[in-house]
Specification:
about 375 residues, Lambda Exonuclease, Chain A, alpha+beta, 12 helices
Amino acid sequence: MPGKHAILSASSSHRWLACPPSAKLCAKEANKSSPYAQQGTDAHALCEYKVLKALGRDSPDPTENLDYFDTEMDDCSDQFCSYVCEQLQKAKTLCSDPQILIEQRLDFSRWVPEGFGTGDCLIVADKILHIIDFKYGVGILVEAENNPQMMCYALGALDIYDGIYDIEEVRMTIFQPRRENISSWDISKADLLAWAENVLKPAAELAIKGEGDFHAGDHCQFCAVKVTCRKRAEYNLELAKYDFEMPVNLDQEEISAILPRIDELIAWAGDVKEFALQSALSGTKYPCFKVVEGRSTRRFTDEAAVAEAVTNDGFDPYEKKLLGITAMTSLLGKKRFEELLGDLITKPPGKPTLVPDTDKRPAINTAIEDFQE
């Protein structure tokens, strides 16, 4: 049914697997779209058209109906199409008749009540089932390893094609061109099915009933009830015991315990502050607080009229500024950009940042290590 959303969707599985009772609470909230979501929808539509066209199948060109179409989206969808075609050729080395499906509805309700989703691209062949998911977002780097959304899609695909093809292994790939990220991960069919029975199914049974324990963590980021969630508040307020401690008075173990929580604490505080502001604007009274007008900056009421007036007075009202790399890439297209400017681009070392040791980036030498060397 068009517009229908699964309570236990694959896209939200990262959250409800970690916090089962959040699923039913989120289902009661209005589904709010955003410009970023629409941008992703447009990019997916363009990818679907280009892949189907490359496969020789009829498909209407959606370009003129897209709200966010630009050179970057055109280039990213070209990259996705090329990658899919390459993977299809590889699949043909495994069997003579691999299947490729684009925007395929996948049902994994054998493990998750009413569970379904849409796979961007499935390439089914003997030995390997390949699930490819297109991510147009640039804010969050998405990895394929142990990605529950991809694993749910893979289960839905297995439910259709296991037995028709002699599948032994599942390969999951995240294709995220705006982050220059192609992340792939392989898992055996046996291990995937074991995860489905031992991890996915029990959590889903709790989630569909609104049962289980609340848990706070990174998965709260896109939760619809994260602002008012008491468990998330308790989780973040645990850091309050350090309020009156100077960092120099904390030992290494205490600081190590705090570090993973700081980003979530800042995000939670911002969420609460914004929620309180919107509630106050709607009439909610918070003791000892009031809504006032914030700082404002001057601006022109009519830029065209300003430019005309200044020009008539003998001055140039415009400043010239070289386009940034992203804007220049959009202007020229990625291929032409590399041809013209590839030798004129440098990437200096990034600012040092402290991350968990599970981060895939190599560690840099610290001051003490440089001294020892």
